[in-house]
């Protein structure tokens, strides 16, 4: 009975006191434990009474502890007691997609030398994707880019195979000097593997003014390569063919990771192709209403995934579009 009284009158104003009380009464060496041990020697006829008392004590003690604990929580919740200097709960942050990161970097580099950004539709007509760019109807050059065709009511449309289509629109609608970049998603009918995908991202560039030369193209691209991959980067231009440029070239950059063991980017060839380029064919200028006797220009186009592969050493294209959090999270510190 005395103990019951003690339990009922117990009060505490902090967590430690409650815990000490709990240990004293209910703990493994507590009062109750002793009482239960003594229970064995209680004469049989008193067992019922004593048992009830012990149980009552146990219940009361538990109740008391619960009550004190919940009081403590409500008191702590008083506005005055909130510690405003405590650090907040962490907010989970996402990360930028590597393609967005690289796209932004390419645009930043060219915008420093005066290029603006232009965009256009992903579903294109034949004129803007092919014909204006010197791909004659039925010409085998069209097979260079396997195309997804889209049936529309009266016109055959296609998913654009490159963003050169945007450049046609710009040339048709503005006067030189033109200095513009067209970033965007493009589509090609290819089987998906580590090295090919049915869609990818491009940034194409176009510069048209008076007396633009191949030397301007080369210096612009060298500037880009050094900004993108570092001062030591070398470039290599190889002759190539595109219907809309003459002369045409493909540009390789020296592989920055090649000296380390197990280069999975260029496979020890030392260089990696990253873009196509050339002087805009005069007939393309004429197709778009630009006087080819007065103006000349260069164009280039690159795959963003390609650059990202080189920059982040990720050599499977599929990773860029699968949305796997384990992959994407690795770009948290990049911006
Ligand atoms: N449009 C070409 C492609 O998608 C790239 C390119 C652009 C080549 C401009 C030359 C000049 O492959």
Automatic annotation (TrEMBL):
Residues 47-78 form a coiled coil. Mg(2+) binds at residue 246. It is found in: Cytoplasm. The keyword Aminoacyl-tRNA synthetase applies. Binds 2 magnesium ions per tetramer. GO terms for molecular function: ATP binding; magnesium ion binding; phenylalanine-tRNA ligase activity; tRNA binding. The keyword Nucleotide-binding applies. Pfam families: Phe_tRNA-synt_N (PF02912), tRNA-synt_2d (PF01409). GO terms for cellular component: cytoplasm. Its cofactor is Mg(2+). It catalyses: tRNA(Phe) + L-phenylalanine + ATP = L-phenylalanyl-tRNA(Phe) + AMP + diphosphate + H(+). Its EC number is 6.1.1.20. Residues 102-310 form the Aminoacyl-transfer RNA synthetases class-II family profile domain. One of its GO terms (biological process) is phenylalanyl-tRNA aminoacylation. It is an enzyme of class 6 (ligase). Belongs to the class-II aminoacyl-tRNA synthetase family. Phe-tRNA synthetase alpha subunit type 1 subfamily. Tetramer of two alpha and two beta subunits. This is Phenylalanine--tRNA ligase alpha subunit. It comes from Vicingus serpentipes.
